Amino acid sequence: NAGVMQNPRHLVRRRGQEARLRCSPMKGHSHVYWYRQLPEEGLKFMVYLQKENIIDESGMPKERFSAEFPKEGPSILRIQQVVRGDSAAYFCASSAGEEYQETQYFGPGTRLLVL
Amino acid sequence: AQSVTQPDIHITVSEGASLELRCNYSYGATPYLFWYVQSPGQGLQLLLKYFSGDTLVQGIKGFEAEFKRSQSSFNLRKPSVHWSDAAEYFCAVGGFSGGYNKLIFGAGTRLAVHP
Asked: Rg of chain B over CA atoms, in angstroms?
């Protein structure tokens, strides 16, 4: 049973380019969370999605960042016009349900470096 | 607002020694508490979680944690550390976001193990 998959694992972008990060949840999971980990810090919640719906995007920067989780295919975190401050590790987690007791399973992360 | 504090940024122990990693949380109601471990370049793996009931929780890899409401703490312990336990450990709190499990993480404790 494959775990949460993220790709690419490493992504290098120049300032002003776009970054697309993909997350395939575990089989049977329809709940996806995205977190960002800045260097030497813990993970910070960005957004919570269910299939075709954004439930909570309170942790997303207001501009340049967007997320989607279509009916078919992976969840996408999109960062437009990247800046150096976007350099971080981006993790997604999936769960089978939304209840507090549901375990979130994390992917290996995408490490974004903005030059 | 909810928050998690891990007072120790780095801890070094000798192999075979006991370990205790501290975690304090701030949350008015009964929290849902988690400990995750992150190996270098990897995603997060759940060690254990507490929702209710017995305040001493057993997890994987020989870890346990004790919930102490009076001290707002959820410290992680292991009686005898192995070299493979060297990693970063994150405490997290959930259960406050109205039905889904948005997690707030501490900044992490990096554990080094001496042979």
From this structure: 14
Chain B positions touching A91 (Cβ under 8 A) are 43-44
**Residue B43 to residue A4, Cβ atoms within 8 A:** yes
Spatial distance between the Cα atoms of A20 and B29, rounded to a whole number of angstroms: 38
Chain CA centroid to CA B105, Å: 10
Q: Are A67 and A57 in contact (CB under 8 A)?
A: yes
| C-beta atoms of B44 and A99 within 8 A | no
Q: Report chain A's terminal Cα–Cα distance, integer Å.
A: 36
Which string of b and e fits B34-49 if b means at least 16 CB within 10 Å? bbbbbeeeebbbbbbb
Tens digit of pLDDT per residue, chain B (115 long)? 788 999 999 999 999 999 999 999 998 777 889 999 998 878 899 999 998 888 999 999 999 999 999 999 999 999 999 999 999 999 999 876 666 778 999 999 999 999 8
């949840």: which residue's tokens?
A25
| B54 CB-near residues (< 8 Å, 6+ apart) | none
A44 at B interface, C-beta within 8 A: yes
**What stretches in chain A show pLDDT beneath 70?**
1, 100
